[in-house]
Amino acid sequence: MECPHCPAIFGSEETLSKHVAAIHEKLASRASSPLPAAASATDTPGSSDGDNLDLTPLLGVLTHEQKDMLLLRAIAADDSLAYHVLAAVLKPLSAEAAAARLEELEPTALAATVRAYVDAGAGRNALMMLRVVTAAASDALGGLGSLLQSDGWEESEELEAVERLPRADAIGALWGEALAGGDEPGGDRSSARDHASDEDESLLSQLAAAIGPVRGAQPGLLVSADGNGVPAAESVAAAQAALAAALEARGGAPAPPASKKARRG
């Protein structure tokens, strides 16, 4: 879930609410107050004889939410830190790291992550997330499709796998958004179109094939509750068309190296 006040992304509504209360509401109330004078390096709590406190072990006990809050507070005090955040976002994301993010985030947070990468000009990372999400969805839907004609599929691990991921219609829409976004790349910034490859056509074809059996038996499993009403098959077909157009527009330029596929389980 994306914060309405900043680009921060959280995995649950509860965490998002805590973030808004701890960061934005407090910052708003303090906006008219001067910041306290910065403490010197030798004033670090717990230090002696001018030695700085080693924060490394302390960071290990903080939750992800606490670290997020501390980072946003630091940026509020020194906005130059935002450039370091952007640099981290633009750092190439490996397939393994993308798969780890897939395991951590809820479906809505996954969608927000892809959009955040696109908005930041990290097109390669947006595509990497889309690749692991699409591969995982194809696997999950394929596994579920083979069970739908038998008893007990409602309690199956395959259904749980499908429900942990964005629905197929949302995945197709995200591909379309990613390929349409990032019109002003520059420097380290790039659009998803710059990194699209033939591998992506194969991934979307696999997703389209996995949709078929599920659409015939349980079409509701393919559609997001807050979707735009476009059927999953049409959404994925539109994504395939957008990808084909992006590859054609690149004029036969060499495709970037294919990434190693990362799948759940």
TrEMBL record:
Occurrences of domain C2H2-type (ranges): 3-24
Superkingdom of origin: Eukaryota
InterPro entries on file: Znf_C2H2_type (IPR013087)
Region of interest (Disordered), ranges: 179-202
Compositional bias per record (Basic and acidic residues), positions renumbered to this chain: 186-196
Protein name: C2H2-type domain-containing protein
Organism in which the protein naturally occurs: Emiliania huxleyi (strain CCMP1516)
Top-level taxonomy: Eukaryota, Haptista, Haptophyta, Prymnesiophyceae, Isochrysidales
